[in-house]
């Protein structure tokens, strides 16, 4: 049975379950006499007895907001790993090969490119900057990939490139928000929140939407890029940290044993059960459920966040750095989380803002190091997912918040000592890999210097529509009512990018 | 059949005909029900038609959004609706079509028979258009009389206490639902105290109440008079005001806003009428001779975000802030989502696209321009400095005039009006440093366009530089223009405000600015200029004492004081043109639009100034249909957890219909006309009702009949807010500090929460009692709010939060189980419990302190068991005890075990919930 079929079967099964759940649960509660305090009890809880007779009619989500829901259409994938290079990586040194630009290196940029344009830092007439990396054609599909990414050639055939993505925001904060929430202003739910809200999570012992950061800093737009906006806060991304508690307050207070914690929660829940008998408030039942889940999470989170128990060959494959907050570690964690049924894993790696104001932001120096930091882990992630049969169920997305100019930056009109590129919104590269994605595809073309899109232009909304499509949603119908109107991730825009679908 | 049998067949036929004739005649002459537009027709249109024939789309040239559109000619050349003639109205014909290409709604299920009948009747009856109830002012309402009845379950009396109960009980009777009996008195005092002050009752108040020394009314008054009342209700308002301690966006730098927060708390405590509360916040600066407090109030609309990220366009984010003010004003006062109208006419409500820009006109002339200094700000001088300002003032009043005195005072208080450096353009050898400050290099130049110097003999400059000997030349118009000013800038000690002689001209002109400093390398900035200012000359030059006054003025200008961002309008010569934005895009500017309010709402009084002040008066006019209804609906929501109109953000055609419309209007009318907009008596009205005082106990029958409790057969029961969860734990443990006001505090939070890009901002843990202040005083950084508050559904306040969604998650359990704040509170509660010798008594005491009621037998035995187990565990391992209780030098197993029990009590559903 191929993957799609399996997912369809699963969906049908789930639908039947939903239809019959009420009967099933009725029997279940009646059979158990309605009084018990165990996880089993909560697996059959749509009708709830209270002492005074009668049953409350509740849905599973009343008691557990992360309960799994089937998507409206047959999905291609069940989970997403989104790799965001915060600061905006240079497509011209990584995936968008422009030999012509090399020839025009150091020449003044033609006025036609600059007319009526605004850049973040470029002023006056800048010079063109040729690609600083060499490129090769790799894999069977023969896509061009830079030498900065030697490992990537192993997985290039798994990937579908989008070479002409555009955005309308040229500052980091708003552009990152746009990329993750569909709006450059704060206050909208992030894509991970939408997905978790729409599908719930497969694993009730872990958060449904996990965020991992590396590079020493959070993304410019802060935690709002994984915020839940107007969706209930239970759907916001939970940042799992490499230092300190992996999840805030996950560790028991010092001196408190696991056994004693269990006893404490049992006592709390047993008293809460009495409270429920008294008040018949379903929120009390939900709270009992949440306390049990918290207890399980306390075991499950540190377990999944611990990469030391992974076999050496896996650690080597990713290039894991023990005890550090690194992108490699986060890639391995992402695989573990998805394997455990986490719905959406969001990685942010900081340090891609290659303006050329110093060594670390030069496209021929610092950028090379950044590429080295991600090259092996990303290739390992895709191969590892593949060897476990997870790649068919998972969507891996890679990109930044915008691209970089073919021109050398001249901040405040000055000549710079290092080679760097300014923010560029017209055309940049993203890629996707995984279930439902056409392997080795490349969609979109930029002009000979990589400034404008010639064909296959796609917007941020199109990228969102495509991700939602692969998860089994029609992005136009996936809405949430807030402030008196229905909201969508894609607002009033977005088209599914069929050209990269298998 | 037996009746027919034996009758002649012809007789039967005749009889049948007669019967038929009677039926037909009856149907023809029976009084027909008049179809109501707002309750029968509008909902059908909204549900089935408006998404294709409304504000955004007008397929076939047909729109049902506005009356004139609905009856206008469509693309077919004739109107789709012909009043009085449904048969010939294509609007009806298209509903009956069999061709799927023609039948409406297109590609959707057909309308039901009943719906089509209603629409047909409506057109035949003349197709009268009607306004939605929410758009006409609330009128005096007749109170339904509900008779006292007996509860069928326990025989107790169901007696209305005040007018509210008549509305509620009448409806319950219609629904055939029995209301609950009253809550017991200890549950009630906890509920009331949490609702009014955000905290459980104090011990002394509790004692007075339980010993019958206080009536319920006196108890309510006592709680309303406490300062904690203002703190509780301010957290509601601060959500609406999007109050935060940082500016938002990438840099999210800190911003000193706490004086505004304190103003809100005081306004609630002083029971400031809501109309004044509104005017002060929206237009305090435009009042005659505003007080400092009125200036502080205007910070309401300076809570908008400010983008300090390098490379961002200040104008873009200024416009974003102005739009946020429009949206927030309508969110807060009108329960109307104006954000839709920014790009197109409202899809459901009667607000047109251009009306958005009419409202924007009121807000689009303020001085703020998304600058890093958050100008304009008000400076807070000390008394001594204020005396000096008074001296300057008196001098000018004596030797000049009052008007001039006022401009000097404003320049000292606000440093306004000024021209910000980011207005500079057409650079040669120079740039805006970090897109913020004017930085010219050697031989650099730029223009400042359209400048009015007011005939001033000086140019004022705020700037800093590390270089000596920069020559600045300012010319009129361009590089060949006459020299207006020429001066040298030398190294400064940080930012300074200085002035230089200027040739006096009394008309608007462009200024051409040159900088020369050959000692500098190429591309090196000579200086960084923040703004340019002009001020009419100080009068009395010939009088003795002039020099002292002038010196005093200059030194006052350079005094660094605490500040607060405020609202100020442009002077007429700097007035901004307010333009329509095509499809909401600020770069696509259309015609100019004069400030005006939407005609669908109350009329504009020509006596009102056409400014924010007029707008605020329009909002609190008794004719405004939405302001009072909005306030009472949201206060009701604060108390009951549900609004009378449950969609708090939207009161209009698309909102949920009100559960008790007459009650909403009664409360709104009373707020305006009997309480003169004071909120304390409104809150008292509600909490005095029997409806509020009912037990919140439910049961399956009650729950299944009315899961949301919208008929109020039971009292409110909800999880406490983020702030309340914290405050309650601090109060019950005795740790709480009641210190009011002042800068926001930083209670302990885990390390590594703040990771700010390009900023040295740090979470510096507060010391002493500041660690235990109420939640409202906790520092709120928008991109990284206090983590346990976020877990409990507080927002990050980037934009107006109308209501917090209450969630129930495992992360909340982790906070109250494991956050050191709660562990510490448990320990201090345990210490008090252990003053009782007997363990059972100690547990009962702790429970009573937390819940204000006696513990049940099953609960106490459960907690006793927990104590025993914990005690055994700690008793066997003294290291564990020490680890657990780091607060105590000599911790005992008994203390540790009791801390576990206290922690369990503070995690109970009943503790985290108001019942």
Key words describing this protein structure:
heterodimer, A: about 500 residues, alpha/beta, Alkaline Phosphatase, subunit A, 2 domains, nine-stranded mixed β-sheet, two-stranded antiparallel ribbon, about 35% helix, B: about 900 residues, alpha+beta, Jelly Rolls, five-stranded antiparallel β-sheet, four-stranded antiparallel β-sheet, about 40% helix, about 10% strand, globular, disordered N terminus
Question: What's the short story on this structure?
Answer:
The complex is a heterodimer of chains A (502) and B (915). Chain A has 502 residues and is α/β, with parallel strands linked by helices.
Topology record:
The complex is a heterodimer of chains A (502) and B (915).
Chain A: H1 3-32, H2 39-42, E1 47-49, E2 55-57, H3 60-63, E3 79-86, H4 99-103, H5 111-114, E4 135-138, E5 143-146, E6 159-166, H6 172-181, H7 191-199, E7 209-214, E8 238-239, H8 258-279, H9 282-305, H10 312-318, H11 327-339, E9 344-350, H12 366-387, E10 394-399, E11 403-408, E12 421-424, E13 428-434, E14 442-443, E15 445-446, E16 453-455, E17 458-459, H13 460-470, E18 479-482, E19 485-488
Chain B: H1 9-29, H2 37-49, H3 67-70, H4 90-96, H5 113-124, E1 149-150, E2 157-158, H6 163-175, H7 185-197, H8 203-210, H9 216-224, H10 227-240, H11 258-269, H12 274-283, H13 292-297, H14 314-334, H15 353-363, E3 377-379, H16 383-399, H17 402-414, E4 418-420, E5 425-433, E6 437-452, E7 458-464, E8 470-476, E9 483-489, E10 496-501, E11 508-516, E12 528-533, H18 546-557, E13 563-565, E14 579-581, E15 589-592, H19 612-619, H20 627-640, H21 661-673, H22 679-688, H23 690-693, H24 700-705, E16 718-719, H25 722-733, H26 787-791, H27 810-818, H28 820-833, H29 839-851, H30 857-875, H31 878-884, H32 893-905, H33 909-912, E17 913-914
């Amino acid at each position: 049975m191929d993957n799609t079929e399996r997912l369809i079967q699963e969906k049908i099964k789930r639908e039947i379950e939903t239809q019959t759940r009420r009967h099933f649960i009725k029997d279940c509660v009646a059979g158990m006499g309605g009084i018990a305090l165990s996880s089993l009890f909560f697996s059959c809880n749509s009708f709830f007895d209270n002492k005074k007779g009668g049953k409350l009619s509740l849905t599973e989500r009343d008691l557990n907001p992360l309960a799994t829901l089937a998507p409206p259409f047959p999905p291609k994938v069940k989970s997403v790993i989104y790799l965001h290079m915060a600061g905006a990586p240079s497509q011209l040194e990584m995936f968008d090969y422009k030999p012509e630009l090399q020839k025009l290196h150091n020449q003044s940029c033609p006025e036609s490119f600059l007319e009526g344009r605004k850049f973040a830092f470029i002023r006056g007439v800048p010079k063109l900057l040729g690609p600083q990396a060499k490129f090769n054609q790799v894999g069977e599909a023969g896509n061009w990939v830079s030498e900065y990414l030697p490992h990537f050639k192993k997985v290039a055939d798994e990937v579908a490139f989008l070479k002409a993505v555009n955005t309308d925001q040229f500052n980091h904060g708003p552009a990152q928000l746009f990329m993750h929430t569909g709006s450059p202003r704060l206050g909208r739910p992030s894509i991970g929140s939408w997905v978790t809200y729409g599908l719930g999570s497969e694993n009730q012992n872990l958060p449904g939407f996990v965020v991992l950061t590396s590079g020493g800093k959070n993304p410019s737009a802060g935690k709002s890029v994984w915020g839940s906006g107007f969706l209930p806060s239970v759907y916001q991304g939970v940042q799992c940290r490499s230092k300190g508690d992996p999840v805030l307050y996950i560790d028991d207070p010092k001196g408190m044993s696991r056994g004693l914690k269990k006893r404490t929660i049992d006592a709390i829940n047993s008293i809460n059960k009495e409270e429920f008998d008294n008040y018949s408030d379903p929120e009390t039942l939900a709270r009992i459920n949440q306390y049990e889940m918290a207890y399980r999470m306390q075991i499950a989170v540190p377990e999944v966040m611990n990469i030391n128990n992974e076999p050496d060959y896996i650690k080597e494959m990713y290039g894991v750095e023990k005890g550090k907050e690194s992108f490699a570690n986060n890639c391995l964690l992402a695989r573990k989380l998805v394997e455990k049924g986490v719905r959406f894993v969001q990685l942010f790696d900081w340090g891609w803002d290659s303006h050329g104001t110093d060594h670390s932001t030069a496209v021929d120096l610092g950028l090379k190091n950044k590429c080295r930091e991600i090259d092996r882990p990303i290739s390992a992630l895709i191969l590892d997912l593949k060897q476990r049969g997870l790649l068919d169920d998972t969507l891996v997305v890679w990109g930044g918040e915008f691209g970089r100019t073919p021109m050398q930056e001249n901040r405040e009109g000055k000549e710079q000592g290092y080679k760097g590129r300014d923010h560029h919104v017209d055309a940049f590269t993203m890629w996707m890999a995984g279930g439902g994605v056409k392997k080795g595809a490349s969609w979109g073309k930029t002009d000979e210097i990589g400034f404008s899109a010639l064909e296959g232009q796609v917007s941020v909304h199109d990228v969102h529509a495509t991700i939602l499509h692969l998860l089994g949603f029609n992005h136009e119908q996936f809405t949430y009512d807030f402030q008196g109107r229905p909201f969508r991730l894609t607002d009033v825009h977005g088209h599914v990018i069929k050209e990269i679908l298998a | 059949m037996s009746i027919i049998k034996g009758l002649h067949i012809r007789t039967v036929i005749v009889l049948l005909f007669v019967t038929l004739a009677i039926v037909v005649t009856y149907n023809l002459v029976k009084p027909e029900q008049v179809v109501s537009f707002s309750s029968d027709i509008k909902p059908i249109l909204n549900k089935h038609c408006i998404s294709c024939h409304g504000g955004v789309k007008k397929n076939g040239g047909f729109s049902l959004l506005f009356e004139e559109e609905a009856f206008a000619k469509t693309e077919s050349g004739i109107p789709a609706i012909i009043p009085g003639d449904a048969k010939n109205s294509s609007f009806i014909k298209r509903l009956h079509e069999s061709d799927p290409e023609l039948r409406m709604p297109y590609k959707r299920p057909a309308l039901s028979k009943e719906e089509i009948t209603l629409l047909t009747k409506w057109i035949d009856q003349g197709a009268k258009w009607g306004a939605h109830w929410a758009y006409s002012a609330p009128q005096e309402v007749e109170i339904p009389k509900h008779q006292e009845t007996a509860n069928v379950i326990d025989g107790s009396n169901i007696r209305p206490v005040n007018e509210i109960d008549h509305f509620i009980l009448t409806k319950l009777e219609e629904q055939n639902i029995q209301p609950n009996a009253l809550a017991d008195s200890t549950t009630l005092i906890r509920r009331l105290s949490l609702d009014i002050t955000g905290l459980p009752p104090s011990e002394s108040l509790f004692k007075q109440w339980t010993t019958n020394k206080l009536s319920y009314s006196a108890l309510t008054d006592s709680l309303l008079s406490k300062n904690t009342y203002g703190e509780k209700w301010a957290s509601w308002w601060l959500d609406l005001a999007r109050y935060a301690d940082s500016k938002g966006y990438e840099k999210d730098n800190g911003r000193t806003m706490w004086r505004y927060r304190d103003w809100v708390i005081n306004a609630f405590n002083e029971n400031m009428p809501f109309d004044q509360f509104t005017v002060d916040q929206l237009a305090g600066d435009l009042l005659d001779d505003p007080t400092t407090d009125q200036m502080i109030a205007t910070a309401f609309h300076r809570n908008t975000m400010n983008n300090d990220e390098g490379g961002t366009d200040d104008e873009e984010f200024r416009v974003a802030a102005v739009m946020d003010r429009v949206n927030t004003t309508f969110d807060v006062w009108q329960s109307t989502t104006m954000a839709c109208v920014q790009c197109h006419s409202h899809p459901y409500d009667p607000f047109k696209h251009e009306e958005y820009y009419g409202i924007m006109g009121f807000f689009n002339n303020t001085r703020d321009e998304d600058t890093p200094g958050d100008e304009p700000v008000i400076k807070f001088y000390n008394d001594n400095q204020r005396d000096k300002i008074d001296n300057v003032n008196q001098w000018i009043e004596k030797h000049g005039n009052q008007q001039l005195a006022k401009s000097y005072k404003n320049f000292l208080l606000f440093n306004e009006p000024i021209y910000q450096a980011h207005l500079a353009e057409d650079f040669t050898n120079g740039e805006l440093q970090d897109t913020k400050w004017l930085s010219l290099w050697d031989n650099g130049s730029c223009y400042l366009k359209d400048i009015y110097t007011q005939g001033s003999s000086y140019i004022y400059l705020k700037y800093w530089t590390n270089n000596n000997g920069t020559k600045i030349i300012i010319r009129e118009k361009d590089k060949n223009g006459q020299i207006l000013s020429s001066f040298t800038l030398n190294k400064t000690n940080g930012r300074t405000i200085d002035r230089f002689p200027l040739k006096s001209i009394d008309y608007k002109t462009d200024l051409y600015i040159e900088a020369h400093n050959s000692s500098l390398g190429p591309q090196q900035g000579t200086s960084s200029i923040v703004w340019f200012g002009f001020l009419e000359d100080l009068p009395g030059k010939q009088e003795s004492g002039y020099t002292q006054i002038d010196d005093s003025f200059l030194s006052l200008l350079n005094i660094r004081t605490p500040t607060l961002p405020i609202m100020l309008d442009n002077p007429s010569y700097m007035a901004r043109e307010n333009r329509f934005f095509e499809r909401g895009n600020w770069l696509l500017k259309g015609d100019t639009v004069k400030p005006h309010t939407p005609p669908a709402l109350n009329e504009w009084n020509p006596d009102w100034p056409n400014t924010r002040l007029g707008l605020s008066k329009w909002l609190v006019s008794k004719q405004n249909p939405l302001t009072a209804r909005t306030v009472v609906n949201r206060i009701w929501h604060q108390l009951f957890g549900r609004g009378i109109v449950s969609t708090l953000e939207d009161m209009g055609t698309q909102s949920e219909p009100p559960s008790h419309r007459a009650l909403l209007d009664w409360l709104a009318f009373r707020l305006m006309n009997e309480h003169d907009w004071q909120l304390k008596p409104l809150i008292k009205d509600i909490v005095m009702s029997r409806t509020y005082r009912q037990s919140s106990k439910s049961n399956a029958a009650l729950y299944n009949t009315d899961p949301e409790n919208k008929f109020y057969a039971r009292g409110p029961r909800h999880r406490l807010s983020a702030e309340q969860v914290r405050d309650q734990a601090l109060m019950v443990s005795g740790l709480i500090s009641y210190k009011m006001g002042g800068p926001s505090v930083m209670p302990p939070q885990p390390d590594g929460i703040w990771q700010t890009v390009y900023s040295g901002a740090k979470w510096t843990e507060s010391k002493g009692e500041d660690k235990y202040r109420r939640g409202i005083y906790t520092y709120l950084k928008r991109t990284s709010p206090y983590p346990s508050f976020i877990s409990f559904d507080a927002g990050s306040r980037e934009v107006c939060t109308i209501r917090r969604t209450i969630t129930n998650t495992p992360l909340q359990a982790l906070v109250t189980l494991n956050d050191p704040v709660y562990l510490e509170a448990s320990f201090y509660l345990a210490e008090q419990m252990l003053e009782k010798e007997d363990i059972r008594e100690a547990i009962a005491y702790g429970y009573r302190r937390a819940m204000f009621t006696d513990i049940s037998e099953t609960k106490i035995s459960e907690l006793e068991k927990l104590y025993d187990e914990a005690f055994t565990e700690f008793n066997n391992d003294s290291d564990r005890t020490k680890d657990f209780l780091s607060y105590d030098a000599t911790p005992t197993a008994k203390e540790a075990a009791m801390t576990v029990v206290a922690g369990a009590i503070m995690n109970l559903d009943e503790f985290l919930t108001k019942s």
